[in-house]
Amino acid sequence: MNVFAIIGRVVLSTLAEIGALTRFVWLAVTHIFRPPFFWRLIAQQMLRIGYFSLPVVALTAFFTGGALALQIYYGGNTFNSESIVATIVALGITRELGPVLGGLMVAGRVSAAIAAELGTMRVTEQIDALTTLSTNPHKYLVVPRVVAAVITLPALVFIADIIGIMGGFVVGTGSLEFNPGVYIKNTVDFLDADDVISGLIKAGVFGFIIAIMGCFHGFNSKGGAQGVGRATTNAVVTASILILAANYVMTSLLFAN
User: Which pTM does this prediction carry?
Assistant: First the structure.
């Protein structure tokens, strides 16, 4: 019977966590469209989430594009298909690697920062002070971060797509001795606008996941410094897992035909 009791507690706690997250998401989404609108806070969060994440996303995209070009070239040698390097690099970066790796890198940086910031505010009772001052914590703390992440992630991924394709171009023309004109022509001929747009749609969803997970775990942290540490870890882990799961779902929906 102890085994069933343990299973029951796990199931009930999981359902309670899902319910709390669902309610938190509902409050965040509904408050986005309600005044007042804190435009200055949104602009500040866009700067923190987008501009300050640009270096790590750009470096990740560049080296990923270069490594992808090398792997495709060495694999294509077996079938005498080296000419597909430019096409596969462009499609791989825009459809999958750009949004997914960009989302994971931003999740590691931004979700942790949001969870740590809001978790510290929670354990030091600053969030309770906002409620005492008749300021809605969801409106003041959660909404600006969610809106900023949803706006800036597609912009980051678009830049990452360009840099990732450029990384493949640099490796392809520098190390693999491709003709630059032919490489660019193959990229332009086979890259479609829908490939880029699908990646940007994914990025917007990933931005929402990153901000929501950071806010949720930080908002509900407890237990002092250890609680803040747990909230930070849980925010990064859950955001990363949900990004990968959402990527699979959206890929199956966007490319079903």
Answer: 0.89
